[in-house]
Amino acid sequence: MAVSGSLSNRDIYGTIVRIGEETSRPLLEYLQALWRLGRAERTRQALPSDLFVALLAQATSAPVPSFDDTWRTSDLSVDGATPGFDVWERVILSQIADLRDFAEGPEQSFPELGVDAPRRQTDGARANARRWYNHSLPAYLECAMAGALGGWDAGDGIRKALPGSAVQIYPEPQSVVDLPSLSWQDFTEFLICGQEYE
User: Fold this and answer.
1) Residue 131 belongs to what H/E stretch?
2) Domain boundaries, the chain
């Protein structure tokens, strides 16, 4: 895929919010499609920002690979020696496995308040935390962007600045910045914030 443009976090935020609002694809299928698209770019050290956005957009309609039950039982843990793409892949596969567990498990009451993935005792180690706050694609994408890369504005009407001093688990970037490219580490933080950020 030929790409070359640099975007600001504000540009990306607006596009990502629209992507989430304009699709009805379930989050599980979306992440499976995104995993396949990301694998095709695994030899890159970083993703140009317009390619990053293109991957997120394409995942709304790209073919969804079959779920592989070994993703549940494999050791997907990461350590400091795990290279960038491999961490990203283990996190997204861990999230896919969690979402499959949710789909097959008991219905959750008020999942937006935070619920733990119903992992089985036979499941392997996963690269993500058990707690999930965002179960829909629009919420996942908006929180991923706001938490990892910023770019939102109170005028958007989606998110409000916290009054007074607050301790943020993931400090948001506070200004509009140019993002010529994103590393696999940036993309991994995006995934984690999609799951955990509120």
Assistant:
1) strand 131-132
2) 7-66+80-156+168-196
CA dihedral (169, 26, 92, 161) in degrees, to 10, reads -20
User: How many C-beta atoms surround the C-beta of residue 49 within 10 A?
Assistant: 23
Q: Using DSSP bridges, classify how beta strands 131-132 and 115-116 pair: parallel, antiparallel or unpaired.
A: antiparallel
User: Rounded to 5 degrees, what angle do the CA atoms 52, 142, 180 make?
Assistant: 30
Question: CA–CA separation, 123 vs 131, rounded Å?
Answer: 16
Tokens of 182: 């994103």
**What is the per-residue pLDDT across 62-105, written as a single tens digit (0 to 9) for each?**
999 999 999 999 999 999 888 899 999 999 999 999 999 999 98
Q: To 10 degrees, the CA torsion angle through 18, 21, 23, 27? A: 110
CB atoms closer than 10 angstroms to residue 45: 10
